[in-house]
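Q: Got a minute? One more chain.
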Amino acid sequence: MMTMFGDPEVWLPLAFAALMGFSILIYVILDGFDLGVGVLSAFVEPAERDRMIASIGPFWDANETWLVMAIGILLVAFPTAHGAILTALYIPVAVMLIGLILRGVAFEFRAKTTGRAHNAWNAAFFSGSLLSSLSQGWMLGIYVMGLEHTAETMAFAALTAFCLTGGYAFIGACWLILKTEGALQDKAVDWAKGGLRLAVAGLLAISVATPLVSPRLLDKWFSFPEFLFLAPLPIVSAGVAGAIWLILRDPDLATGRLAWTPFAGAAALFALGFMGMAYSFYPYVVPEQITIYDAASAPESLLIIFVGAVIVMPVIMAYTALAYYIFRGKARALSYE
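A: Always. Here it is, folded:
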């Protein structure tokens, strides 16, 4: 089996990089929309907030499984990179975990309290969602800047934190367009318009900053024929963003038969942006410092882990798909009985 696919020192690190990238992308899309719903929950009436939380109730904890999968792959397959990344991002990772724990606890406790305690847990749910979103955006900015901490890189990280949070609010609003009706759905259309602007701004900011990080990236982006491989991504992204905007501007389309398209388009935008980053940074797992081949564990260890991943990954995908299928359709009234 070691020779079936060629040199295991080449294909195994590449396979694990693909699995990790896929897990991160699925996490960003799935947990991104429920974090976005949490951020938006502060701007509605109590009955609308209950409907918003009901729309993510069956999914939010399963969505976080993909984050565990991605970090687990990073740890076991690329331990050197895991140490470098987690060391550089220790504080924002801790903030993210605090936010995720806070929103998870608030999700349950808000339904079991009334009065001032209920309001406090609603605030905790919003705060946990906001903390998690901002910290992930900060980590993205520092990662793109090569894990350097200077005034310039931290300013860029603050920008990406704000834009990623706006992007999460955008995909969260698109989810609400799909899952709700009436006045809340109309509000979600307005939120999606503003969130789309921030999501596009974030993609543009990363696109401008990334080639400035190193001469290698600048050459990879603008030399020929490499330019031809990357050029379709911004063109398609612009087309998708334009199509979403046109649909959102027509209330009959956005809240009617095409209510699913804003969410599908938002997911496509996230996927296209992720593909651009993957293309730019390959073969580095720590930008300009450590490649996936330098950071990889021994091939013998990777092969054993790969067998486990091939078994576990389809199971996670299957129960995720099953959950979304069972709870398809518009969100019902929130109930814990």
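A: The CA atoms of residues 178 and 259 lie 5 Å apart.
Q: Perfect, thanks.
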